[in-house]
Amino acid sequence: MQQSNSGSKAYLFSIVMVAVLGGLLFGYDTAVISGADKGLQAFFLGAKDFTYSDGWHGFTCASALIGCIIGSALSGYLASNWGRKKSLCFAGMMFFISALGSMDPEFLFFEHGVPTYSLLIVFNIYRVIGGIGVGLASAICPMYIAEVAPSNIRGTLVSWNQFAIIFGQLVVYMVNFFILGEHTHPIIQTIGEGLSAVSPDSDPWTIASGWRYMFGSEAVPAGLFTLLICFVPETPRYLVMIKQDSKALTILQRINGAEVGRQTLEDIKNTITEKTERLFTYGVPVIFVGIMLSVFQQAVGINAVLYYAPRIFGDMGMENPMVQTVIMGVVNILFTLVAVFTVEKWGRKPLLITGSIGMAVGAFGVALTFGNASMNLVTMLSIMVYSASFMMSWGPVCWVLIAEIFPNTIRGAAVAIAVAFQWIFNWIVSSTFVPMFNMKLSGDPDFGHWFTYALYGTICVLSAIFVWKLVPETKGKTLEDMTKLWKKK
Fold it and tell me: What is the DSSP string of 311-344?
């Protein structure tokens, strides 16, 4: 019920829940490949007009990340010129088109079920389109939430976006598991340097259809998000930017109450109209900190685990790696909730430093035990510690800081740059994980295994030092306070 003095929490939570659906789609789209990649690989290995090498498959699995970089780079321009709401609607349409196109890339132009080089190009285009949606949602969803949320609960509400990302990943792990059902993943055999072949004992259904249903399942949440986003308001801060103060006041008062709404509007007007809007108005440090938060969030190596979880657990000798993947998804959900409920009590910096230390312990644990069959349980627990530590810290808190740390006048452009770096390093980590993991030295066949996780553990230690020395605490500060914070530095 709306109240003139205290505002309506129901109204605030309803519009935030719609926005976090964008986070769910972010997680869904990036993790759907974990269940579909072997079926997709087996399908294109049947092509007659070209050789589908391991390199091609690596590119195809990561092609959505190209779109993520494009979408995040465009997010600042679109958020500033189209508004936050219209940009999210566009992102939803990109998700929907990508889901249907990835499921049936032959639509209209190609013979169904016949893999060709041209079909591979079209499939990758559809994945890039979905990546554009992910890139936009990854930047604009937390921005939207931060701009409508009161300062005392902003961290919690933005953290729900990360919860939705991880929940989306868990949902798609389970959807892939149920789609697979009694069927089995194709058996892929190495036949040469960078070349693979499908075993004749492979399940033909997963090659012909299974991967299609996995990609197509995303159309349901994508369609729902695109529809619901039409019913949420534009953010008050954007409305002030385009001189629609009366609409901004109405929304602010409905969320915060009459008196706080009026005061918040004045604070926004004072910072929106202040000075220039050049990117480096507040100096290099604010941009550097934003970029490095994004770089460290990816350089710690988490997405190498999330994207390749079934393969990692399979290499450890697990009978059904999809089961371990789902368990990891549940653990991730639980520890994301830790951040959701503590980010306003503990603050941003303590959570990030604690998470970095926990990740370092987990990564070094994997480095020391991976490949030793007698220590498989320790290895799996170390992976869980590593993943859980990320989910309670860098996963949600990085997005909170990116959404709130920049002053109003540069937020759109600065968030776009920070998130673009996030996707660039996501691509670097994702594309280098398999080659590093498979590295071998004479006399040490497991060199790549321990080296990869030892490297990630070292980066985790560096991330803790970075946060301790350079990242300001923003707990309890309004978005307008960020202008004063960086002016002092």
Answer: HHHHHTT-S-HHHHHHHHHHHHHHHHHHHHHHHH
Residues 154, 394: Cα–Cα separation, whole Å: 17
220-225 long-range contacts (CB < 8 A, ≥24 apart) are 221/21, 221/24, 221/25, 221/28, 221/95, 221/168, 222/25, 222/92, 222/95, 222/96, 222/98, 222/99, 222/133, 223/92, 223/96, 224/21, 225/18, 225/21, 225/22, 225/24, 225/25, 225/92, 225/95
Mapped onto helix, strand or coil, the DSSP state of residue 197 is strand
From the CA atom positions of the chain, what is the Rg in Å? Answer: 23
pLDDT in tens, the chain (489 residues): 344 566 788 888 899 999 999 889 988 988 888 788 889 989 999 999 989 987 788 788 888 888 988 998 888 889 888 999 999 999 999 999 999 999 999 998 899 999 999 999 999 999 999 999 988 988 898 889 888 888 778 777 877 887 888 888 888 888 988 898 888 878 777 776 667 788 888 889 999 999 999 999 999 999 999 999 999 999 988 898 888 889 989 998 888 888 888 888 887 777 665 444 566 666 678 888 889 999 999 999 887 776 666 666 766 666 666 677 777 778 888 888 887 787 777 888 899 999 999 999 998 998 888 777 778 788 888 888 888 899 888 888 887 888 778 876 777 778 888 888 888 888 888 777 767 776 777 667 677 778 888 999 999 999 999 999 988 887 777 666 766 666 655
pTM exceeding the 0.90 threshold for the entire prediction = no
Q: Please spell the DSSP secondary structure of 410-447, one letter per residue.
A: GHHHHHHHHHHHHHHHHHHHHHHHHHHHT--BTTBTTH
**CB-CB contact of 165 with 141 (8 Å):** no
Positive or negative torsion for Cα 403, 406, 409, 415: negative
